[in-house]
Design brief:
Strand 12, helix 14 and strand 13 form a beta-alpha-beta unit. The strands form 5 sheets. The chain has a 6-stranded parallel β-sheet with strand order 5-3-2-6-7-8, sandwiched between helices. Strands 17-13-12-18-19-20 form a 6-stranded parallel β-sheet, sandwiched between helices. By secondary structure, the protein is an alpha/beta fold. Helix 10 runs parallel beside helix 11 (285-296), helix 16 crosses helix 17 and helix 17 (515-525) crosses helix 19. Residues 357-404 are annotated as: Disordered. It comes from Paenibacillus oceani. Residues 383-398 have a biased composition (Low complexity).
Length: 691
């Protein structure tokens, strides 16, 4: 792969946020002591009562209660409830994602937030707000220069400029830090609107959010003898960051006992039983982390269902009723930097059982003439404890179809014939499904012209190239302190980023290479470390000269627990990749965007890139988008409301509908990756032979 072209953001046109029509205002923000709470049937359950008692008991003991949330907590007007729980001593740490901080920040200075995305995405004005982007990027850059975290950087900026923020008292991250409660922000590079502002500094974003991740890990470690983790509407980053914090603490010898976790969401997943891996409910991160994984170390998890405007008031009022009966005050929270019994210990990849392994006895390339039977086979180990050591499993083309598949195949063929681009986005479960050979061959045939991966997907692809296997069998790794503690993978990734950052390649944000480009350069410079590169996607992208970009979340990727982890460097490298990605999207007219299993990063990065492209007057109007997942949406064209869980499923809005409103067509296909990707390959091969 040659150095990819990058889109320059300097010419982006921003608009004043004061001229924007907003969907949420501070005038209709909930008032905890005045409003009548909406009824929620979960409030009467013994599980909820037990959770309330546990929170009170842990706080009386001076133990942590950590709050994690997604952006809809703020958008649904629940800020004051969170603030009052902080003021009353119920919460000892509050965290959110990037969008959470943006809505909170806008409410503080504007008194309103939440634009009409469906309308603004069409003219390229989506997210292009001067004051929001400038103020927040200034705050983060200034804080990064002082070694502050993201949340502390925002607080410092607001404290220094109170005249700009008339609604200071209703800002969650301000009030948390006024009362001595840390507020941390955990971002994904390229997913937030401030990442598309002309003055964005990805290195500062990565460095400050990385510092917040370290702070979160200290708060989780303080749960060594008990604590509570509450997660409201963060479907991926909240649970995954909590899991990494638990693993780090277990690795350092802390007991991490008597921990209770509760998830509040409208996704109808229960904790009654463990579903099979072919069921969408299995892959719902709050269930996997707070029920399955926490259970490994003796913790207890709950999954509560309801809208935030029902569940959060119920939690607050339930806690207040219990607090009023207490004679003793809450003990002050203990130092989040709980002492560790031992230093960090990394483990060699060679001692690990992996779910997916390459079969080196089979030729790696798909035989173009042989058709589906020529696809290579791979060995997939049983993922469950007590299962067989190694059962044979192989991709089986021809077992999955969809009435709309023919339409998509025709569009892929037409795009190739016309020289249009095909951007493919991959989530973390693709590597373990054994479909690399099909994707590699699609790259070879010219049906994929840019491959974009989440941090986890990139990590797994690198492991395939280096070791021939990936995805650790999960059972026991958290208890043993081995989860995400694999030495050689971290050595490779951080070594590659270190070398890439030191190159003299000029970019808009300084010198250095992108994340994917750094990995490919490193593989070329150290070929002995990558004996299986021909069986990897990074090898295929390098061989056929197409962009290979990585779009990370700070704190969720396994390599980020490695002692070499430099979050500023990771943020900068992934920011360069985002600019390369934007260049591809700017030239996607007549082409396709296909997303496999990335439910947040993939759709959000794509929507931001599309807005940037249209803002810069690139004519990206007639495109085809397709989302592939096992999530069952049914009729995905029907109108859904705020009370429906699928309203919040990002690919539905940000892949299927919004990007294609000016032309083209959006699809949603339901199926396992080991079904859908081989079926696409088979259909394209057969169509090619027919012509």
């Amino acid at each position: 792969m040659t150095a990819g072209k990058r889109l320059i953001f300097a010419a982006i046109r921003t608009n004043s946020v004061y001229d924007r029509t907003n969907l949420v205002t501070i005038r209709n923000m909930a008032r905890p002591y005045d409003d009548e709470a909406e009824p929620w049937r979960g409030a009467e359950t013994p599980e909820f009562s037990c959770l309330l008692d546990t929170i009170i008991a842990r706080r009386l003991e001076g133990k942590p209660v950590v709050w994690s949330m997604g952006a809809h907590v703020i958008k649904n007007g629940q800020s004051r409830y969170v603030i009052e729980m902080v003021r009353n001593g119920f919460l000892t740490h509050v965290s959110g994602n990037g969008a959470t901080s943006i809505h909170d920040f806008e409410l503080a200075f504007l008194g309103e937030t939440s634009e009409d995305v469906a309308r603004s995405i069409e003219d390229g004005s989506f997210g292009m707000w001067e004051e929001t982007g400038r103020y927040m990027n200034e705050a983060i850059r200034e804080g990064a220069a002082q070694g502050l975290g993201y949340g502390a950087s925002l607080y410092q900026y607001l404290s220094a400029h109170p005249e700009k923020f008339p609604h200071y008292d209703d800002c969650v991250f301000v009030q948390c830090q006024r009362f001595g409660v840390p507020y941390t922000c955990h971002i994904s590079i390229g997913t937030d609107i401030i990442h598309q502002h002309p003055i964005v500094d990805y290195e500062a974003l990565g460095g400050t959010s990385g510092e917040d991740f370290r702070h979160m890990c200290r708060s989780v470690a303080a749960m060594k003898n008990g604590g509570v983790f509450l997660n409201f509407g963060s479907a991926i980053s909240g649970p995954e960051i909590f899991l990494r914090g638990l693993s780090l603490a277990r690795n350092r010898g802390l007991p991490m006992q008597d921990i209770v976790a509760a998830n509040f969401d409208i996704v109808p997943v229960t904790a009654d039983s463990r579903p099979p891996e072919t069921d969408p409910d299995y892959h719902y991160r709050p269930r996997r982390v707070l029920i399955d994984r926490l259970g490994e170390i003796g913790g207890e998890g709950y999954l509560f269902h309801g809208l935030h405007q029902q569940t959060i008031p119920a939690l607050f009022h339930g806690l207040m009723r219990r607090k009023e009966k207490l004679d003793a005050p809450f003990a002050p929270p203990k130092d989040a930097g709980a002492e560790a019994a031992q230093s960090l210990k990394l483990y060699p990849v060679g001692v690990r059982r992996s779910k997916f392994r390459l079969d080196q006895d089979t030729p790696p390339d798909v035989d173009a003439a042989a058709g589906p039977a020529g696809a290579p086979h791979h060995r997939v180990e049983a993922a469950h404890a007590g299962g067989p050591a190694g059962g044979a499993s192989e991709p089986r083309p021809g077992t999955w179809t969809d009435p709309q598949l023919g339409d998509l195949i025709a569009r892929l063929q037409e795009a190739k014939e016309r020289g249009c681009r095909v951007l493919v986005s991959l989530g973390s479960n693709v590597a373990g499904s054994g479909v690399q050979p099909y994707l590699i061959d699609l790259i070879r045939r010219g049906y994929v012209t840019h491959l974009a991966l989440t941090g986890a997907a990139c990590f797994q692809d690198i492991e395939l190239a280096a070791f021939g296997h990936t995805e650790a069998v999960e059972e026991g790794t958290l208890k043993d302190g081995k989860l995400a503690m694999w030495k050689e993978t971290g050595d490779i990734v951080h070594g590659a980023l270190l070398e890439g950052n030191a190159t003299e390649t000029e970019t808009e944000i300084g010198t250095g290479c992108g994340y994917g480009e750094s990995i490919i350069r490193y593989a070329r410079n150290h070929p002995a470390l990558f004996p299986h590169i021909e069986d990897s996607l990074l090898g295929a992208c390098a061989r056929y000269g197409i962009p290979y970009t990585c779009h990370i979340t700070i704190g969720t990727d396994d390599i980020q627990l490695h002692p070499m982890s430099d979050f500023a460097a990771q943020g900068k490298a992934s920011g360069i990749d985002f600019q390369m990605y934007c260049h591809t999207v700017a030239h996607l007219e007549g082409g396709l965007f296909l997303n496999f299993g990335s439910t947040v990063t993939g759709p959000e990065v794509f929507l931001k890139a599309l807005s940037i492209a249209r803002n810069l007057h690139y004519p990206v109007h007639h495109i085809t988008t397709a989302n592939f997942d096992i999530v069952r949406l049914g009729d995905y064209h029907k109108k859904v409301g705020y009370e429906d869980w699928d309203y919040y499923y990002r690919p539905r809005k940000n892949i299927v509908h919004r990007p294609t409103s000016l032309g083209g067509k959006g699809f949603h296909f339901e199926g396992l990756h080991e079904e859908t990707i081989p079926a696409i390959w088979e259909a394209l091969v057969e169509a090619g032979q027919a012509t």
